[in-house]
Design a protein that fits this description.
84 residues, 3-stranded mixed β-sheet, alpha+beta, 2 helices
């Protein structure tokens, strides 16, 4: 999450994070469906749900809010914050 959905965010990185989250959810699902729940498995499933929610919300609201912002590349190759 900190690599792709940190304070400075890029759309490509957030989309990559969603792919990683989906892959982890697919790996957790068979274990979860066997009803052999442990505290660690419950925490992992819950943290994946939180990660998906945060990433999806960040993608849905590209405007800069507070300290978090989405970077876009300007024509000169400079990285500037994107805001409304």
């Amino acid at each position: 999450m900190s690599a792709h959905v940190g304070i400075i965010r890029e759309q490509e990185g957030m989309l990559h994070a969603l792919c990683i989250i989906a892959k982890l959810e697919r790996q957790v699902a068979p274990v979860w469906n066997r009803h052999r729940w442990s505290a660690e498995l419950i925490d992992l499933r819950d943290l994946l749900a939180v990660a998906r929610s945060i990433t999806s919300a960040a993608l849905a609201e590209p405007a800069s809010l507070g300290a978090h912002y989405v970077e876009v590349t300007a024509s000169q190759g400079l990285r500037v914050p994107h805001s409304k």
